[in-house]
Amino acid sequence: MSGEGLPTRKITIDEDDLRRLQADVWSNEFAPVKLEMDGKTMDAQLRFRGGHTRNYPKKSYEIHYGTNGILHWNAEFDDPSMIRNALSFQFFNMMGVPSPRTKHMWLEWNGYPHGVYLEIESVDTAFFRRRNIGSRALIYAVNDKANFSLIDPDTEQIKESLVEGYRVMNGNVTKTERRLVRFVRNVNRLPRKSLRAFMAKRLDIAVYLKWLAGAVLTGNYDGFDQNYALYEHTSTGKYRIIPWDYEGTWGRNCYGRLCGSDLVDVKGYNALTRKVLSYKTCRQAYRKILAKLLESKFTLSAIEPVIEGLYEQITPAIRDDFTRKWPFRSFEEEPELFRSYIQERRAIVMEELKTWRD
Predict the structure, then answer these.
(1) How far apart are CA 149 and CA 159, in angstroms?
(2) Is 29 within the bounds of a domain?
(3) For the chain: N or C, fewer Cβ within 10 A?
(4) What does pTM read for this prediction?
């Protein structure tokens, strides 16, 4: 088994450290490892990452190395195509929404093949530095309590804390959480006229609507109440949003099950989305974004070459990878599913846009 055509990463980990990690897959504890990457061997730290995927036989990992270097290695165990995350992030970048870069790789573990992984750029201070974007604070939406609402989705009661579901990754934690609490509270409690002025001051609405369109078109049902990063833009002080974890998209959910192309409402979800789209000017702007994407970016002619390029790159390695739960036949059939999804999703969105009067 080999990773023909893909960059190889090698991990060496002590068996005792590995057993310690495996004893509690839900722990975020790191273990020391040796990482060989791009011809260099270095000390690094490794932990398991992900949600329900931590129970899978093929784990996903977070790697810390060098001076603040962070990488995410996704097994993409539920995705028979292995490209849904990569394709989604490329699509967002095509739209002009800064998103993580990705690279398929071959992993070796203590000298044994570990199969194909997707290496995903971390959204951190280096992410913004590479793009020359100013960010004074960064917040991860880590579960579905990050729904911009006062209501807990599990208990359907008022949340005990409005920072539930969020994790401050960069910036002064106390001040960042205080600003976030104020934002969520005002989104839900300010009267209509005051709220419009507040959102114009504190939310980059143009970026938010682009992100919303991307989540809606790719069909990421789990991407509205979690699986995003929120950052405060330095010069404007406005919140902007970045997509994260788009494995459950393009016709499959986050468990790899087939789902309808109409699964996700064209107007999206979460409390903030409802507030934004309650204003006519925002609905008109969102409609224009969707219409433009349907003309240019969300088309077979624009997306098929990206799919074909990714498939050409990874097919030899996928054929040799016996660590995956999906047979190679399923991998081969996925491009047709992508094509069907794009055609069906385009028709659904076009039809709904015809009914919008404002």
Answers:
(1) 9
(2) no
(3) C
(4) 0.95
